[in-house]
Amino acid sequence: MSSTTSENKFFTAPKEWPIYRDMTARAWRVALFACLGAAIFGYDTAWWSGVLGMPAFTKAYGVYNPKTKGYTISAPLQSSGSGIPTAGRIIGSVLTPFIADRVGRRMCMLVMSVLFIISIIVEVTSNSFWQIVMGRFLNYIPMGMAGALIPVYQAECAPPSCRGSLVTVYTWTVDAGAVLASGIVFNTHAMTGPIAYKLVMGVQMVFPVLLLAALPFIPESPRWLCMKGRREEAMIILKDLRTSDEIAELEVLDIEASFEMHSSDGSWMDLFRGSNLRRTIISVTLPTIEGWQGQSFMGNYLIVFLISLGVKNTYLLALLIQSTLLAMVTLSFWAPDYIGRRPMLIVGTATMWISMYITAGVSGRDTTVTSDTRKQVAVAEIPTTKLRSKTGGLAYFSQQTGGLIVTFVSPYMQDAGYGNMGAYIGFFFGGISFLGLIFVYFCFPETKGTSVEELDLFFDQKIPTREFGKARRGQHGIQEYVIEGQTHEDDVEKNVEKWEVGGPVEL
User: Fold this and answer.
1) CA–CA distance, 386 with 262 (Å, rounded to integer)
2) Sign of CA dihedral 391, 392, 393, 394
3) How far apart are the C-alpha atoms of 156 and 361, rounded to whole Å?
4) Are 381 and 444 in contact (CB under 8 A)?
5) What is the pLDDT of residues 283-320, one digit of tens each?
6) Is there a contact between 359 and 426 (Cβ–Cβ < 8 Å)?
7) Could you tell me if 293 and 285 are in contact, meaning their C-beta atoms sit under 8 angstroms apart?
8) 362: alpha, beta or left? (left if phi > 0; alpha if psi -120 to 50)
9) For labeling, which of 30, 279, 351, 484 is most exposed (least CB within 10 Å)?
10) What are the helix and strand counts (H, E) for the chain?
């Protein structure tokens, strides 16, 4: 699809926004339904953070502190209760490519939903701390599947003009789940007995049940169908998801041309061959940096952290923080496809770096919580189609491995009996954010407005990072390199520069 002049303006009328102009009602329904599983991600982390400081929970599973005249969950239990479930996410991220590539994205969502329901039952029926931990571990397996799958599915179904906005729906749903959990914990933290924390555990059952009910209305990924040779099914689905049959037909031709140009079978080793190596490095490094930036720390230990700072009304403040994050994500829906991915990542990572240093520097007492810079858009759109699921799984595996280490180590780094860093832990996370800022500036290309098939061309022609934004979009140029199902890599290298500048292509 050709870009319009209005897309270059910073502010345009809502009817000219790609998310309004290029989306059908069914496309929006699919985008929202698919993210129901993602809501548990934010919900679970937020409720766990809340109950770690909840009097009923700490009295049941904590130890009495004569100095504070109250109960607290010990650092080893905090570490185990937060870290062991994170290992479940790692397992889920490893399983996802095998399930999603073999039986489809939609069937993977079915498996996720069933696993969610089983694990939540284990949590709610718990009578011990370790049963809760086991329930969360099981819950994090489908959560890891959701993190690796949903952004990929969204990218494969979205129009190029608003792919960034639709993948942001995933982030929005995660933060909406966190707000809901924080709101429930705020209203139950003063209760006595197990109902105070089991109520918030049980409410999350709503999400997998809704996802199961929505599955009949969620189509299979058209790109996965094309990858399996099911062209007609992919065409039918794309015609429902696009505003015209012509757009859908051109998109299917682009997908097929991309598959013919990249004739590899999409094995794990292909992630590290040719132009895919650069794409894999970008897709994996960004989430890995995020895992070390303190995201898991703030998610799992927010309430405990605020209590350690002596903050009053901690549950209300936690709810306000989560609501602020949701509001910021809501306001940024338009940003990836107007401002671009690269500026957002640079500004967001710089903000995290500065904010973490402020957190640590102001006498070790004040805290600033910033919007976490999510990298789902990069993971979802940078890889080639045949490798997208595997790249997403690898990226999420790397992110959660870093998060697992941070989750286990953070309580000891902060605890007075061990590292005694307290709020100065922000210096560590801030340093990681600074490294992320350097990586984004030198390595992350601007992908705004490109189809995932056009990205195949751009990476094959080895365009420098800061030149990506200047490459021509929306010309369905990939089809020019495929004649009668034959594509030669030397022809691609020979012609791609001519195609970029609009010159004649030799076929």
Assistant:
1) 9
2) positive
3) 43
4) no
5) 888 888 877 876 666 666 677 667 666 667 788 888 88
6) yes
7) no
8) beta
9) 484
10) 23, 2
